[in-house]
Amino acid sequence: MRIALIGLPQSGRSTLFSLLVGHEGRTERSGVQLGTANVPDPRLDLLSRMFQPKKTTYARLELADLPPLDPGGGSGGQGMSAAAFLQQVQEAELLVHVCRAFHSDYVPHPLGEVDARRDAQRVEEELILADWSLLSRRLERMAKEISKGDVAKQQEQAVLERVVAALEEGRPVRALELSEAEARTLRPYTLLSQKPCLLVLNVDEEGWSRAGRGEEPFAGARELEAWAEEHRLPSILVSAELERQVEELDPEDRAEFLEALGIKERGLDRVARAAYEACGLISFFTVGEDEVKAWTVRRGATAVEAAGKVHSDIARGFIRAEVCAYDDLVRLGSLAKAKEEGVLRLEGKGYPVQDGEIIHFRFNV
Ligand SMILES: Nc1nc2c(ncn2[C@@H]2O[C@H](COP(=O)(O)OP(=O)(O)OP(=O)(O)O)[C@@H](O)[C@H]2O)c(=O)[nH]1
Ligand SMILES: [Mg+2]
Questions:
Q1: For residue 191, which of 124, 131, 298, 324 is within the disulfide window of CB 3.0 to 4.6 Å?
Q2: What tens digit of pLDDT does each residue of 269-279 get?
Q3: In the Cβ-directed half-sphere of 296, how many Cα atoms lie within 13 Å?
Q4: For domain 125-193, which CATH number applies: 3.30.360.10, 1.10.150.300, 3.40.50.300, 3.40.50.410?
Q5: Residue 350 has what DSSP assignment?
């Protein structure tokens, strides 16, 4: 799964990218930084303490740090052709829209004043405009080609016209109620404003502590939140600069520092988790002396699909899945005890895996 970080210049994308990805495993391809990030998961940490494995493996997210959008609008990414930029956005499964809400005398804003609402809208308009151009061109061509008897084409035309009308009102496709048939019609277009998107509001230290006191983190934040909701953009508050400072501390000092700042959970962890959620992903765990590992599947995946993630042989020779809910295992302290208490279940191929379950696959090849 690929997550693209988008936003206006100097919004904090690269800082966030670095924090998520760390120092290793980055590559650059045609001006885009690519990397993978661990999805922090306290459940996995606890399982690791319980089983003391040689290795603990977190779920991973693939990230791309895209060049900034032109704040003037209309021409895609800076330092990259508009087409190449749109292609990059199109390839992503999830967009993380980083929006500047921090004040700094050292970092000039490309549009002068800091105004998160304006910036968020600007980026949203870019996505909407890209979709509008694509669909309008398509409709133009269709109008010339379409014949009276072609019912399928006429239906497609009607769907596209409806979407174009919504885009013209400034509504992103992700905020429209679509029937299944409409969604099917739109799928081949991979519209940018239809992709799930998270709005990351990058606040300064003051904004962060205001939020901690239950106050509005910055002027206009409430209004922005209402707008984001209307646009189906789940929003997350982070302070990239603060988190960077935390990152520089020794691990022992970190907890203390976080507590002093009233940070219960790092913004980064929330970004990773929200990304997971927005993509409809869940984790199941495998445990053992060698490795405790989080695996990623789509919500609703079956036991045999989950087995296939671990190894195709396990899916092929699938007999049963031994499944234990996370809470049960934690409560009882060991798999043996879970078995004794009868909370370790045997499930068949079609069993829908639930988030956090510990699974052992019985198979035969
Ligand atoms: N004060 C403050 N500065 C920040 C924060 N986040 C980022 N910065 C600073 O803002 C500048 C831009 O941050 P980057 O992470 O490079 O932003 P970017 O969006 O990748 O920028 P471009 O790729 O140049 O568009 C850097 O000097 C950061 O140190 C923040 O939360 N608070
Ligand atoms: Mg950058």
A1: 131
A2: 888 888 888 88
A3: 18
A4: 1.10.150.300
A5: T
Rounded to the nearest 10°, the torsion over CA 174, 178, 182, 185 is 10
Contact 135, 163 (CB under 8 A): yes
**Coil, helix or strand at residue 106:** coil
Q: Which CATH number fits domain 2-40+59-114+196-278: 3.30.70.3040, 3.40.50.410, 3.40.50.300, 3.30.70.100?
A: 3.40.50.300
User: 76 falls in which pLDDT band (50, 70, 90)?
Assistant: low
Q: Is 245 in the pocket of ligand 1 (CB under 6 A)?
A: no
DSSP character for 364?
-
Contact 146, 157 (CB under 8 A): yes
- Closest atom of ligand 1 to 106 CA is 27
Residue among 241, 245, 248 whose CB has most ligand 1 atoms within 8 A, to mutate? 241
CA distances from 162 to 130, 137, 151, 188 (A): 16, 15, 17, 17
CB 226 within 8 A of CB 235: no
Atom of ligand 1 nearest to the CA of 17: 15
pTM of the full structure: 0.89
For β-strands 59-65 and 2-6, DSSP reports them as: parallel
| Residue type present at position 58 | Y
| Ligand 1 neighbour 114 (Cβ under 6 A) | no
Residue 302 to residues 282, 318, 327, 358: CA-CA distances in angstroms? Answer: 12, 12, 20, 14
Pocket test for ligand 1, best of 26, 107, 244, 248 (most atoms within 8 A of CB): 107
pLDDT tens by residue, 189-212: 999 999 999 999 999 999 998 998
Pairwise CA distance, residues 328 & 43, whole Å: 12
Query: How far is Cα 77 from Cα 79, in angstroms, rounded to an integer?
Result: 6
CB of 13 within 6 A of ligand 1: the answer is yes
Q: The tokens of 156 are what?
A: 């497609």
CATH number of 300-363: 3.10.20.30
| Cβ(13)–Cβ(68) below 8 Å | yes
